[in-house]
Hints:
This protein has 18 helices and 20 strands.
Amino acid sequence: MTLCSAPLIQPGTRAVVLGAGVSGVAAARLICAHGGSARVLDEGSAPAAAREALSACGAAYRSGGGLFPDDPCDLCVVSPAFAADHPWLAACAARGIPVMAELELGARHWPGRILAVTGSKGKSSLVKLCAETLSAAGIPSAPGGNYGTPLCALALDTPGLAWAVVEVSSFQLEWVETFAPDVAVLLNAQPDHLDRHGSFDVYRTIKERLFRRQPPQGVALLPAGYETLYGPVATAARTMTFGADPSADWRYASHAVSATGTPFARQVGLTGSWFDNPVLGLAAAAGCAALAACGLGAPETEAGLRAFAPLPHRMQTVLEHAGVRYVDDSKATSLAALAAALTMAGRPVRLIAGGRLKESDLSFVKELLTRHTRKVYLIGECAHQMVEAWQDVASCEICETMDRAVARAADEAVSGETVLLSPGTASFDQFKNYHERGERFAQAARQVAVHAAQLFDR
Length: 458
């Protein structure tokens, strides 16, 4: 496949955009705004708002699949949903048509600086923290990429911002060649999306593309010990580390992040913030390091950490009833995220898990299940697989549906326990996305509370 290193969009550039989602529409708008022509292909039918936006900017649109167009084409811009073996991308390879991610197209037209975050879990929260903290400190910034606004839209609509704080997925990094963020963070690397990438080594190597084109004056932030495990990361930028290890340049310990051995020597307190625990403290260390690289001091960073409100469906307490806490962690779409949720729960857990697995090794969470769970209630297409893997260390019950799982967990829970939705899987077997899954959990939990209140009133 020809990764694209072509110049910026010029008048007359003929581009095909794959996907009519938010990133595809943003790419088409940018192409047309710079005098190019865009034809958007989508296998399904785009929402009315997307079709209207494409029509307004002068882009052509075709739904329903079919062959890649035979017309002359200078560039193909691919949305994250399209895997490398898609027939349309195979057609581009056969014809020598350069391919780039929407992220890369946006970056080439973005006049400001870029802080980019990738990793297996926690990316969106870190992007939100950094963008909000920069803006609160008087440095105009916006979240973008896989969380927030597509970078093409930021480049077109808000080019006066100082920083774009961009969440970058492995799907986007498959199609970048010149993407060169000023500050780049690999938050963590755990098995994820193996159904698409095939192996953890391939997935991890794709993640490392984030650093490949960074300039020497840039900053690359890696988890402490990462290069010891996997070898040096190719980058021209200054490399720094974060984590709980004493060797980390930015270290989380004892309710604070310290950077005593770096050019940014300082300490940032976490007391009273969402990040003040051993799991999220590592993300706080990464955030402190990234914000320092963007020019912020300790007081501004500490204020941002204290002000941070977590995103929905990430260890979000839905309600507490009769001493039982109901926590929505629907965004936990990998087993590593499930493991983190069990560690963070702080109470005995009745775990609701299951859905569409993205990985095959279920064994590494067994110790945590033994330590933290009272029982596991399983839903979705992998329920039987999870029972077979976990029944020797945890009591398991196949409930099939969310409503039944919540009802069974609520019926058996006692005061001081947590009913935790942390599926460890994708949602697409039963739900449109993890948002819908989390909302269904919250609705079921509220129904349990209402029903209990009605019984009490009789």
